[in-house]
Design goal:
Helix content is about 0%, strand content about 50%. It is mostly beta strands. A hairpin with a 6-residue loop joins strand 4 and strand 5. It is globular. About 30% of the residues are buried.
Length: about 110
């Protein structure tokens, strides 16, 4: 059974930072392309970026330069470092495994507000 569990969400002030974690069980993260998505209320889900099997990263324009994806293969965990958060970053954040997003986590809420 494959399980992805996001954590680290919460409330941040504009300009602040949060780091999300995605802990993976049942597959080895090092053999999968891993992605971060988010969905804001009333909006479509948005792909934020991914880290490939080879460790290469790509980002959506909306977060490029502010968000960083990394992984620790020993801990089987992926991270999303989010800096300079803005109210429009408020959303539920999800991690997913595979380019086809075969497996999903349950999501973690991020709220950016003063």
């Amino acid at each position: 059974q494959v399980e992805l569990v996001e954590s680290g969400g919460g409330l941040a002030q504009p300009g602040g930072s949060l780091t999300l974690s995605c802990t993976v069980d049942g597959i080895f993260l090092r053999f999968w392309d891993m992605r971060w998505h988010r969905q804001a209320p009333g909006k479509q889900r948005e792909l934020l970026g991914e880290i490939s099997i080879g460790g290469n990263t790509m980002y959506a324009d909306s977060v490029k330069g502010r968000f960083t994806i990394s992984r620790d293969v020993a801990k089987n965990t992926m991270y999303l470092q989010m800096n300079n958060l803005q109210p429009e970053d408020t959303a539920v954040y999800y991690c997913a495994a595979g380019k086809s997003d075969k497996y999903w986590g349950q999501g973690t809420q991020v709220t950016v507000s003063s």
